[in-house]
Each structure stands twice: as C-alpha cells, then as structure tokens.
Amino acid sequence: MLWFYDFSLMRRLVRNISGGMHLTRTHGDCQRNKPARTRFLMQYTEVFLSQISDPFRIGLLVVLVITAFNTAAQTGFVLPLLLGTIFVAILVPAAMGDDRSDLIVPTAVGLFSNVLILAVVLAIRLIFLRLRGSDPHR
C-alpha cells in the first residue's frame, strides 16, 4: 500500500519551508500561480478568519461591552464602544504580530471583525436581558 501514498504534500511542505512555494488549500496548486487579485483576497480572508476566531480579541470586546454599560451614565455609551473597538483593532496586531512593519492590513480588517464581534456580543446581551425580563436599555 505504500505505492498509494501521495508524496506531493511532503514536497510542497519542503518547498514552503525552504521559501520556494506556499501551501494552499487546493491540491497541487501554489500561490505564485494564482492571479494577483486571488492572492489579495486570500490574504484578507485569512486575516479576517484568524481575527474573528481569536479568543483574546473576543474577550477584550466582551469586557469592553460590560465596561461600557457599567459606565454609560458617566461617559456615554457610543463613544467608549467606538474608541475601544479602534483600540482593540490596533492593539492586538501590534502586540501579537510577528511583522511590525505592516500593521495596516491587520488593523483595517480588525476594525471590520471587531464590529462584527461587537454586534454579536450586543445581540447576545439583548437576547439575554429580554429572556430574563429586565430592561435592555439599562
């Protein structure tokens, strides 16, 4: 059954480690053979998917929502959420990124992913308060 084993994945992995080709999701395909538009969209998609599932980012935004609701009487509600969302979008790539020279792409995509995570957290809070029977605008 050894003849059945496909060595192309191993070859692609060795080329990736040596800096030649990059692994992709499709079998036998490499990044440099793709058009520039596809590489561009894959870069943004990969960054977005990694950010939307980042537990550190989600935790920061959950704490941001809790803090914003607790201090809404003194500081307002919208401005702290807006500034906190921007802060998290800049903080996470700057603190955890390997390459500090290019923070524009992760920050721009981070703003979008933060807004989506924030919308989900606010919707979960609203649903929880409505099921509990308390005023959701408190």
Shape: elongated
Query: What is the mean pLDDT?
Result: 77
How far apart are the termini? 66 Å
Quickly give the structural class.
mainly alpha
Number of beta strands? 0
Which series of helices and strands comes N to C? HHHHHH
Ranges where pLDDT stays below 50 over 5 or more residues in a row are 1-11, 13-29
- Radius of gyration, Cα only, in angstroms? 21 Å
Number of helices: 6
What does the main sheet amount to?
none
Helix proportion:
55-70%
In percent, how much strand structure appears in the residues? Answer: under 5%
Describe the structure.
This protein is mostly helical and 138 residues long. It is built from 6 helices and no strands. It has helices spanning 8-18, 36-52, 55-70, 72-75, 78-96, 104-132. Helix 3 (55-70) packs antiparallel against helix 5 (78-96) and helix 5 (78-96) packs across helix 6. The protein is elongated. The protein starts with 7 loop residues before the first helix and ends in a 6-residue tail after the last helix. The model is unreliable at 1-11 and 13-29 (pLDDT under 50).
What's the structural blueprint in terms of helices and strands?
Layout lengths: L7 H11 L17 H17 L2 H16 L1 H4 L2 H19 L7 H29 L6
Summary of the model, kept short:
The chain is 70% helix and 0% strand.
Features:
single chain, 138 residues, mainly alpha, 6 helices, 70% helix, 0% strand, elongated, disordered N terminus
